[in-house]
Amino acid sequence: MKTPAFDAHSVRDDFPALHQKVYGKPLVYLDNAATTQKPRIVIDRLTRYYEQENCNIHRGVHYLSQQATDAFEQTRGHVARNLNAQAAHEIIFTKGTTESVNLVSHSMGKLLMKPGSSILVTAMEHHSNMVPWQQLCRNYNGRLLVTRLTDTGEVDLNHFSELLQQRPVMAAFTHISNALGTVNPAKEMTRMAHEAGIPVLVDGAQAVAHMQVDVQELDCDFYVYSGHKVYAPMGVGVLYGKQRWLEQMEPWQFGGEMVDQVSFAETTFNELPFKFEAGTPNVGAVLGLGAALEFLNLQDIAQVHAYEHRLLDYAVGKLSEIPGIRFVGHPTQRSGLVSFLLGDSHPYDAGTLLDKMGIAVRTGHHCAQPVMDIYGIPGTVRASFALYNTFEEVDMLCDAVQKAAKMLL
Predict the structure, then answer these.
(1) What is the DSSP code (8-state) at residue 149?
(2) Is 137 among the residues known to form the active site?
(3) C or N terminus of the chain, fewer CB within 10 Å?
């Protein structure tokens, strides 16, 4: 029996925020790379937690605490299965991708860095996967090695290989570029780094919503993402780390929960994953993340991903017909988004005009200023897609871009 094609129109009914008007026009929400809208199952899960289960987790013997703790740890197991981690204790909950990268840079830095050591990144990184490594190098009088990009906006693998020969202590790179939409060959890059004996962190902030991620297949040492980009609430993120590294790494925050025994003379630390989860976590957001993954599991993920690829290809094709448009980045493999400019006009001008027509896109440097410097531009207009976007919305985007082009060019 043939599996029915994915129907974005029916899924939209689960997202209350999509059914509103801005400036008297239906909202066309194409800013999903910044944050996705939330399905009703996530909103209801947050409400249920705060109405019925609100309590600090772990150590409490009363009913509410046990209920919240069980739900929290069940979500950890759900996240582990979703990423195909070997064990639930390889999953650390954080505030988001930024905190996850900072945790690894701090704790792995203390473990691996020596004066003069280097870290390898790529030129397409989001600030959150570049600045922490840059500052770590600065603290150790080391060097940040940057892999250049090709003319099409892809990682130059030959240059990446050359830089690996300089023996950086860590390699960190994005799975999908938030500024260009480039899908990096993360598995191949990880293999290359491991052959040189170098551990790898992959920034999956833009990837988890658009592809099935298997950390064991990738063989990366760390994988990070933010819940709010995968239909979950803000304020929750995931750090996957191989157990052998997490056991060696020191905690980066100290306080409650992450301790085992405390005295004025000495403190010992808790077991995994708790030694990296100091203080009260954002329990509601974590449970919302579990609900978001449940929502995704209700979909035919293969059909969803195929639909998103068709939608993106359609958008790129239609936009390319507009006189004066110029794309920023022409990667062979693109996912989730397209970045463009209208002639030499400023992206803010185009974004403002699109907004008045009900089209929500992101404008600016997208926290990837080095990428914009490479292209010699202040920023781009970025249209990014989710499973609830439709071909009709792409048509509305293109009509609006065409009208903006006539005003700006």
Answers:
(1) B
(2) no
(3) N
Tokens 């600090």 belong to 56
Domains of the chain and CATH, by start: 8-30+300-408 (3.90.1150.10), 44-297 (3.40.640.10)
Six token digits for residue 122 = 């790529």
Task: Spell out the residues 6+ positions from residue 146 whose beta carbon is closer than 8 angstroms to its own.
Answer: 120, 121, 122, 123, 370
Q: Which whole-number Å values give the CA distances from 111 to 89, 246, 397, in the listed order?
A: 20, 11, 49
Which has the closest alpha carbon to 366: 389, 336, 396? 336
Each residue's pLDDT tens digit, 223-258? 999 999 999 999 999 999 999 999 999 999 998 887
Burial 280-301, CB ≥16 within 10 A → b, else e: ebbbbbbbbbbbbbebbeeeee
Residue of 137, 220, 367, 398 marked catalytic: 367
Write down the pTM of the prediction: 0.96
Closest CA relative to residue 139, chosen from 97, 105, 104: 105
Burial class of 332 by CB neighbour count within 10 A (0 to 12, 13 to 18, 19+):
exposed
Q: Cα–Cα distance between 312 and 222 in angstroms, integer?
A: 29
CA–chain centroid gap for 299, Å, is 20
> d(Cα 199, Cα 214) in Å, to the nearest integer?
17
Alpha-carbon separation of residue 272 from 85, 259, 264 (angstroms): 14, 11, 23
Q: Tokens for 80? A: 């582990």
Contacts 24+ apart (CB under 8 A), 89-92: 89/243, 89/246, 89/271, 89/272, 89/273, 90/240, 90/241, 90/242, 90/243, 90/246, 90/272, 90/273, 91/238, 91/239, 91/240, 91/273, 92/238, 92/239, 92/240, 92/241, 92/246, 92/273, 92/276, 92/277
Torsion angle, alpha carbons of 135, 136, 138, 143, to 10 = -110
Q: Rg for the chain (alpha carbons), in Å?
A: 22
